[in-house]
Amino acid sequence: MRSFLDFEQPIAELESKIDELRHLPGAADINIADEVAKLQAKAERLLRQTYARLTPWQKVQVARHPERPRLTDYVGALITDFTPLAGDRTFAEDRAIVGGLGRFRGAPLMVIGQEKGADTESRVRHNFGMARPEGYRKARRLMELADRFRLPILTLIDTAGAYPGVGAEERGQAEAIARAIEAGLGVGVPFVAVVIGEGGSGGAIALATGNAVLMLEHSIYSVISPEGCASILWRSAENAQQAAEALKLTAQDLLRLGVIDAVVPEPLGGAHRDKETTIAAVGEAIAAAFAALDGLDPATLRLRRREKFLAIGQNGS
Questions:
Q1: Predicted confidence band at 27 (pLDDT cuts at 50, 70, 90)?
Q2: Residue ranges of the domains in the chain?
Q3: Of the CATH numbers 3.90.1150.10, 2.30.30.140, 3.40.1210.10, 3.90.226.10, which one belongs to the domain with range 60-311?
Q4: Which of 118, 204, 232, 299 could crosslink 199 through cysteines, CB 3.0-4.6 Å?
């Protein structure tokens, strides 16, 4: 059964009524079929109108939808011969970050990303996609490994942020994130990053220092969550909607500000309504991004990446 967000309740009521009519005895009757068709047209029209004017806070809700495609969905559909690589060679394996070797459309590459999990058990196992220092040290290790063997890097970002626990801070969370950012900026191979859901704080930036940074249409990318921002500025998470407006965290805002390079369209109603179409669209965008980087030497890739990130903030629009 599909999960509906708060602002989708009018759509949910229409779709529920459509389901009821379809299961009525004699549902094949012409009059009932006509009524179902009318309700379907009305539901689609309402869905289109709703998603055409989503507020930033509503986009936050869509980006966090529990049925949205996850890292493992993309890897399963787009990457062949995937071989996961574990551990940071220092402390432990962090399941919030999944990485390994594979092939994208026949070409070998390194894939790294955050996995939130699909149900309670897997979410706990993956710590809801919030990595500890060992996760970022693993990401750094895999980036350096890819650089050593001249393999392109693909990162898929979906995290509320780095894990804020005491143990993570004691083991050097900030330093681990900084080193991952440093590694990403320094590799001499093509590097494409895609925000597929939430791109939260330094936990996202650690994997997002690509030559090309893409975002799904209803994903978000911000230095802090709206709730965290509201708690700091207004001393209350109740102002999260206001914070979401101020943070400019939508893909459309970030494209205009020059923080990202492209927005990947989602199916009507969000990625969770049609996972296959979403994943296919992301695959096409990744292929185009890598094609634009093909043939560039390591020095040029590093220089362009450096210039790209130094230019952020110079756009006055």
A1: low
A2: 6-53, 60-311
A3: 3.90.226.10
A4: 204
Distance between alpha carbon 254 and the CA centroid of its chain, in Å? 14
Residue 84's pLDDT is 97
What's the pLDDT at 298? 97
- Condensed to tens digits (0 to 9), the pLDDT of residues 236-289 reads 888 999 999 999 999 999 999 999 999 999 999 999 999 999 999 999 999 999
